[in-house]
Design a protein that fits this description.
The chain has 1 helix and 19 strands. It is mainly β. Strands 1-2-3-4 form a 4-stranded antiparallel beta sheet, with no helix packed on it.
């Protein structure tokens, strides 16, 4: 197999990676986001805020808008028309964001230290925390269920399924509370993969 080193950061490490059109974007801890096509990389965005509050995850929506989740400064929403910020000042549960995923309607689900949120066009639409019935506030990972519902991986309560499409915030299912923190989560039709700190990878049939 061929292995090729694309680049080695001069000052920093890679914090997050995501697809971006026909290329890949890479967030480096020196406060830059690089756009790489093949082995050629150029600076796409740079912000000193990301030095203090590193990017933890990134996702690009269907229109090319980039959501860069940070641990400490909320979410940077970056597009050709400019930059917006989603943070506690406009409704985000917490500025410490651990993960982000794209939903079918073009919105994003956001995992924060104080609950999960749904955002669109730079605005917070809904939030879901222990106050609304979530089993845990510290959300470490999120994944789209493919139909508008959101899987969330928590620190102490395993994984749970939230339906933001309901009139009232609705907890549909909670599983795996004894397997440790869910650091990663992936939904594939009726299967749910969780990456846990105590039990390793755990697969659930959630049909």
């Amino acid at each position: 197999d061929r292995v090729e080193l694309v680049f080695r950061p001069d000052n920093g490490r890679v914090n997050a990676i995501s697809t971006y059109g026909d290329g890949v974007i890479i967030a480096v801890s020196n406060g830059t986001i690089l756009l790489c096509k093949g082995s050629a990389c150029d600076t796409l965005y740079s912000d000193t805020t990301w030095l203090r509050s590193p990017i933890s995850a990134m996702v690009v929506d269907h229109t090319g808008v980039l959501y860069a989740a940070t641990y400490g400064a909320g979410i940077s929403v970056l597009s050709k028309s400019g930059e917006k910020r989603i943070w506690t000042g406009n409704g985000l549960p917490d500025d410490h964001v651990n993960d982000i995923c794209l939903l079918p309607d073009g919105s994003v689900a956001v995992a924060t230290d104080q609950g999960v949120a749904k955002c669109r066009d730079g605005d917070v639409i809904q939030t879901f925390s222990e106050a609304q019935g979530a089993p845990d506030n510290l959300i470490l990972s999120v994944a789209s269920a493919g139909d508008g519902r959101v899987w969330s991986g928590s620190d102490k309560a395993g994984a749970f399924l939230w339906d933001p499409l309901k009139a009232n915030d609705t907890l549909l299912l909670a599983i795996g509370a004894g397997n440790g923190a869910v650091r990663g989560i992936l939904a594939q039709q009726d299967l749910l993969w969780t990456a846990t700190t105590s039990a390793g990878p755990v697969l659930y049939d959630v049909e």
